[in-house]
Amino acid sequence: MSVAAQFSDLYGYEPAGVWAAPGRVNLIGEYTDFNEGFVMPLALPHTAVAAVARRTDGVLRLHSADIDAPVAELRVDELTPLSKYGQGGWAAYPAGVVWALRDAGHTITGADLHLASTVPTGAGLSSSAALEVVTAYALNELFELGLSGPELAVLAQRAENVFVGVPCGVMDQMASACATEGHALHLDCRDLSIRQVPFDLSAQGLQLLVVDTRVKHELGDGAYAERRAGCEEGARVLGVSHLRDVAYAELADALGKLEESGVDEKVVRYVRHVVSDDHRVEQVIDLLDTGRSSDVRAIGPILTEGHTSLRDDLRISCPELDLVVATANASGALGARMTGGGFGGSAVVLVESADADAVTKSVLSAFQEAGYTAPRVFPAVPSPGAHRVA
Ligand code: ADP
Ligand code: MG
């Protein structure tokens, strides 16, 4: 049954429209966003699809086909961060978007929403951003707010940061809102300027495989805040507002200065990762911009360098992610890296289309031999960002 038909079954009338917003995977640029650097995500073909209708009585009803819970019924004027719907519970994501829009001065008089999503949850593929962005797009049209994709993305991020209480950067929402088919999205996290970089994998005879390890190690819980604080300390010692301001050509000098200053050695590693990963984003863009088949393939080793940096300098990888990268590269992949926050979640693997099956098989059997849960492997086809479907 379509999401629109499910809406009609549930609420007893037809929705005003149906919208879709994708999950994302980050090609390169990790832990660079809060350093005001560069990231380069692409939208997945997996989407959250929402059927929505406007209400005028201040009531907000929310339902997900994927969650075994009754319709959540709230009042828009009672939404407050860290209330019942600001602390966990899936409804906090769409409710948070309504709150963020209202908090920014927009008039939202209520809505009925029903959604279903094909974005795997908790795999580092931003099922949460898909949920927020699809809600924001629907309400933007239904209430004729006239907000742009980037504006909606920033409001969706605010919903997640302040209402749900998750300290994420803006990459996920920007990717879900602004990505386009056949491209990766170059996002400058300083001024939120974006550029569509050609990344038409199938035309190049390539595939980017996502390998969802299906693990999430608890170690990850405090690691983000700790890395973030370390980066801030590094910037302070170097006398810059953010690590974005350390040029790659000056990296060796900067690391020497940090060592002399007596900061913890981990701060030196974090700075080395962030500044070199920003540089890797620029290298990848330069190669993709030429569109030459040999250049597009040459991003493979840069992805693998990125993984080494995340493993050894930032230290956010885990045995499962390292096994994906090592096995993929040993069985013919062009390059591979973990992607997202680390300590589990997913890796990306760049392969010749002709080698995709062989590489997938190698990874699956390596996991079996190691006694790990079988990973989920699928191709990341660079797909459109949020849009109306009906
Ligand atoms: P990620 O964004 O990496 O997938 P998060 O922990 O940020 O992981 O977000 C996952 C949460 O988003 C889920 O626990 C759930 O609350 C919400 N969510 C995602 N997809 C759906 C869905 N289809 N229906 C209801 N809630 C969802
Ligand atoms: Mg998320």
Automatic annotation (TrEMBL):
Substrate binds at residues 30-33, 224. ATP binds at residues 64, 122-128. Signal peptide: none annotated. Gene3D superfamilies: 3.30.230.10, GHMP kinase, C-terminal domain. Its EC number is 2.7.1.6. Coiled coil: none annotated. Residues 93-178 form the GHMP kinase N-terminal domain. GO terms for molecular function: galactokinase activity. The keyword Magnesium applies. Keywords: ATP-binding, Carbohydrate metabolism, Cytoplasm, Galactose metabolism, Kinase, Magnesium, Metal-binding, Nucleotide-binding, Transferase. Mg(2+) binds at residues 128, 160. The active site is at 172 (proton acceptor). Pathway: Carbohydrate metabolism; galactose metabolism. The keyword Magnesium applies. Residues 6-54 form the Galactokinase N-terminal domain. The record marks 24 as: Transition state stabilizer. It comes from the Bacteria. It is found in: Cytoplasm. InterPro entries: Galactokinase, Galactokinase_bac, GalKase_N, GHMP_kinase_C_dom, GHMP_kinase_C_sf, GHMP_kinase_N_dom, GHMP_knse_ATP-bd_CS, Mevalonate/galactokinase. Residues 293-364 form the GHMP kinase C-terminal domain. It catalyses: alpha-D-galactose + ATP = alpha-D-galactose 1-phosphate + ADP + H(+). Belongs to the GHMP kinase family. GalK subfamily. Catalyzes the transfer of the gamma-phosphate of ATP to D-galactose to form alpha-D-galactose-1-phosphate (Gal-1-P). This is Galactokinase. The gene is galK.
